[in-house]
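In the current project phase, our protein records have gained a structure token line. A sample record follows, to show the layout:
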Amino acid sequence: MKLFLVVLGVTAALAAPQPQFQEIVTDYHGQIGIPEAARIKAAEAASDFDGSRIAGGSLANLGQFPYFGGLLVTLTTGGQSVCGSTLVTNNRAVTAAHCWRTQNHQGRLVLHVSGSATLFSGGNRVTSNNVIMHENYNMQSLHNDVAVIVLPNINSNNVIRPISLASGNNLFVGVQAQACGFGRTGDSWSGGITTSQQLRHVSLPVISNADCAAVYGSGPVIASTICVSGSNGRSTCGGDSGGPLVYNNQLIGITSFGAAAGCQRGFPAGFARVTSFNSWISARL
């Protein structure tokens, strides 16, 4: 009887439906970055372009996020992709490692654009091919999705200024953090081009890693991940990769992944947790 009950229990467990986790985007350049760069370039040629993309966010004043840098990444194929970054010293910026290398694409040159509402013209523009990816970066799981860009010196002014790195063991759960970027304003390719002249930003609540893993599973969500809620259609979106998540004037996250299903579906967004990488980044400044 005991054997029968054990077998019955195992059979029932195997028959129970398994949780369906959301997939993340791993071919960033092919699926998002390259077409987004082409779309932004075409849109900037229109007189009503703003360069704004964050989904469900608000317009930002030039200089409101002086640490933000747009990235135009020239790939070894000759194509061009788009990402974001954060200036942390006058000659170093941090971004996502997947902005430089994915399974299908490799960066060759990065153009860092700061102090501008547009990517293809204006602002302070410097190039670099010196991108230091985390040695344990995993292109499939996006673990350790962090990179440091070595830049020529950039002078600080009222619209360009580095930000400090968060340190310590604060998990930031429950705080309202700010994200900004040039990424899409929605899941529609045709949406998001407005008549203003600014970047977009959005305030997002940080959630626990347990809540994030309930959506994505324990594959992409590890201790060095920090997640924000994507409720009410407010989130980072395609093209925002590598950009900042900021709380209390400190960088707490680097935009890493979102749901392949879309950025307005209410799913969380994942970032590299800066407190977990503070020592690694600081050693390369």
